[in-house]
Amino acid sequence: MNRTHVVIMAGGIGSRFWPMSSPEMPKQFIDVLGCGRTLIQLTADRFKEICPAENIWVVTSKDYADLVREQLPQIPSEHILLEPCRRNTAPCIAYVCWKIKTLNPKANVVISPSDHIVIDTTEFNRVVKGALKFTADSDAIVTLGMKPTRPETGYGYIEASLALTSPSNKEICKVDSFREKPDLPTAERYIQKNNYFWNAGIFIWNVNTVINALRVYQPELSAIFDELRSVFFTPAEQAHIDERFPLCPNISIDYAVMEKADEIFVYPASFGWSDLGTWGSLHETSSKDAQGNVCIGTNIQMYDSRNCIIHTTQEKKVVIQGLDGYIVAEKNNTLLVCRMSEEQRIKEFSAETSK
Amino acid sequence: MNRTHVVIMAGGIGSRFWPMSSPEMPKQFIDVLGCGRTLIQLTADRFKEICPAENIWVVTSKDYADLVREQLPQIPSEHILLEPCRRNTAPCIAYVCWKIKTLNPKANVVISPSDHIVIDTTEFNRVVKGALKFTADSDAIVTLGMKPTRPETGYGYIEASLALTSPSNKEICKVDSFREKPDLPTAERYIQKNNYFWNAGIFIWNVNTVINALRVYQPELSAIFDELRSVFFTPAEQAHIDERFPLCPNISIDYAVMEKADEIFVYPASFGWSDLGTWGSLHETSSKDAQGNVCIGTNIQMYDSRNCIIHTTQEKKVVIQGLDGYIVAEKNNTLLVCRMSEEQRIKEFSAETSK
What we know:
Two copies of one chain form a homodimer.
Chain A: E1 4-10, H1 39-46, E2 56-61, H2 65-71, E3 80-83, H3 89-103, E4 108-113, E5 117-118, H4 121-136, E6 141-146, E7 157-165, E8 173-179, H5 184-192, E9 196-206, H6 207-217, H7 219-228, H8 237-244, H9 253-258, E10 264-269, E11 273-274, H10 279-285, E12 294-296, E13 299-303, E14 309-311, E15 317-321, E16 326-331, E17 334-339, H11 346-353
Helix pairs in contact in A: 3-6, 3-7, 6-7
């Protein structure tokens, strides 16, 4: 029996990728890269060597249940857990880990977002396997830390104690502190040192470690799932979850556990990771033409244009002339043209449009 | 019996307004201004005071017959003449005038494009009526000359002899010469004088004058319609036209007659005319917001943008941020974003797209 379980968190609404992404169809369910696979499909594909499909779990919103079933038919439908409302990552992780422990108290768990990308899946696999080996029989919590390539202000950082490496895996070292998204001068200071890493939101720990940590740091949250244990895997489960899940505190696993616990480790790695949190990060990640344009769509012509990202549906014809550094995105009868440098305002634009 | 007939030429393909305008749906059949009436409907409306609907004629391509019937149901269907191919304006005018003369040898005719706009229809009516009075019983050819407001290089110019006014109408004077579209220094020279006017492509003359002029200057063309006269208004007419019309020389009425004949007059006028030949002219003509943007569509939001023209179908949602001096147009699943200063390249773009 394979002890390894993978949890894919897929409840996000992707508001920064409007209009490509919308609350009805967030970005994890979209073929953002134009490669023929959606982000959640690419995420599941990435774990093929880590565990069999029947050990993969998806936690998502009730609204997206059909999307998950449709896009990931290989995953057992009883492994698709449905949140009645959004409560950030700690309740999500608690719910799925309490269930996994019921099935296998010795489970070793990878927690992963559904909407990030990884270019070098071979290195990704090597790192994840190394981390799983490390947590299988220890109470360590391992986070994956991405070696930063630029002073990104959109990511949280992990400060590592590089000298405090683990005896069993010299690549893994102790976390000194978690740092919130920095301003630009701070980010520039971070990347001049060699012990700051981007927090990729990927956690590896065994299921007992998860539950023990939540019991210590989030007793209220833990109590809810302790009480629910008797209904897990019964027809009554969803009704109980619908009633009790909204009572969970709205808190991220970083705040709930990582910033409080002691035995936190970071595995610094480089495997071409991006959270694709912004159009700019998609532009940076994607392959560009000689003028630095990223064109995702089948019939896009660019004239006198540079450093743009154009994203349209398959059948759309697009002619762009004379743009430098713009996002042009079209979906669901909605068109956005916006300077890439102003993309943090897209949430505001989409809110105005839906009024 | 009203002697006045109005001819609306509606065979153009509007290639400069792509993608709003396409060969399947050229701009005369589109509600370019977003006012609820297409350009050809506005053109027909403009002549309401000049003659009854049963004296209006439309010459168009066979491809657009249904569009004309649908948009101008008040016009007798036997007044919708169908060209089997495009042969510029001289054969078009010959065909319709030969037919009008058969019905009424004393007809007095206004020839008008279908895709221009006029803001001040009261002044337009006054000028057209004045010109019709002038040509009713003379062999004068009157062109309407627009008082220029800028050194436009996209229009032909009419050089007038302001001293040689007509005794019967002091506003009308002799044409000295027709000038082709000038370069910018030449256009600037023209508008510093007071005797250069834009050629609006609107001609007023009686039907005998038209036919006599064509007989003198275009005997080959005239021979074709002399021969066809016996089939006019018979079921065989279209078949004969389909056979003989392609043999007509491909020539504009300006080259064919205006630049050769002697008795050419110009009626200088100002009634807010534009040929809407370009996106720029539509931008100039339309009402703008405080930032100089023209938004034609129902759900368009502009942020940090100036001097743009945005043209979309009714149901489209559009958000534009950070554009200055651009055309954004969307139709038939085709999107164009182009600097207004580069709009002369739109023909090229549309040709590439349809490959």
